[in-house]
Write a structure and sequence with these properties.
The protein is of the alpha/beta class. The chain has one domain: Rossmann fold (3-Layer(aba) Sandwich), CATH 3.40.50. The protein contains eight helices and nine strands.
Length: 251
């Protein structure tokens, strides 16, 4: 069990938002529950739209390369913010078996699936906006989940306080080049890189790496005719200006 961990039930608290347009925590959990059934039925295990490789494994490898983990991650503690069914952590554990892994998901369906798929990895059920983060984290990862953060400066400050000195924060997310934009039906905010950089610096984090890599839409196109996920993905693709990789570091 991760030291210092506390996460409320998704149904226990509401979610802030103007005029109730943003889904509440329980509603958002239900959205992810339904979508999880869809993408698992299609043989997919990672809830990512902007793919950097032709397979899930290739995508994860491509994202992880930005964090320069070889020779560094062994024996360290990794925490996935929005861990889904645990596939990213599972792939990492095969590559770096001596590291410790944990995470959080808002979806009860994902949490149940993760406990079945990767029973040796501890994960919690809850809303990371309201969870007490674990202590002494060496690597936070967030693949297309940081858009659910409601107050980015405060959240990154909380993450920085939970990180060891020298720790890293690896983020992949959709970007907006024209200012912060909200997808109300999904409660997901697209942010420009400048907003991410400013929040990271205010939290005392330095910028180790940044890129806006090319990506494939083949995976998303497979969903469009078959899955409820398509509604969110279609809007995300239309509103965003691609994807970005950030690696922040705590000096």
């Amino acid at each position: 069990m991760t030291r210092g961990w506390s996460a409320p039930s998704p149904a226990a608290v509401g979610r802030s938002g103007p005029s109730g347009r943003i889904p509440g925590t329980a509603e958002l959990a239900a959205i992810y529950d339904a979508d999880t059934e869809d993408y698992l039925s299609l043989g997919e295990t990672i809830y990512v739209f902007f793919m950097l490789g032709s397979t899930e494994g290739a995508h994860v490898d491509a994202v992880l390369r930005y964090a320069d983990l070889e020779g560094w991650l062994d024996g360290r503690f990794v925490f996935d913010l929005g861990c889904g069914v645990g596939e990213v952590l599972r792939l990492m554990s095969l590559r770096w078996p001596s590291a410790r892994y944990s995470g959080i998901t808002i979806s009860p369906r994902q949490h149940t699936e993760m406990r079945s798929r990767v029973p040796l990895i501890d994960a919690s059920l809850g809303d990371f906006n309201r969870a007490s983060l674990p202590e002494d984290v060496d690597l936070f990862i967030s693949l297309e989940s940081i858009g659910h953060v409601e107050d980015l400066p405060s959240f990154l400050e909380q993450c920085a306080a939970s990180m060891r000195h020298g720790g890293r924060f690896l983020i992949q997310d959709a970007i907006s080049s024209t200012g912060s934009r909200l997808i109300p039906s999904w409660g997901y905010r697209l942010r420009p890189p400048s907003e991410m950089f400013a929040a990271a610096r205010a939290a005392g984090l330095s910028i180790r790496a940044f890129d806006t890599p090319p990506f494939s839409m083949e995976r998303a196109e497979r969903y469009l005719a078959r899955s409820r996920i398509a509604r969110q993905m279609h809007q995300l693709a239309g509103d965003s200006d691609g994807t970005a990789i950030y690696v922040f570091e705590k000096p």
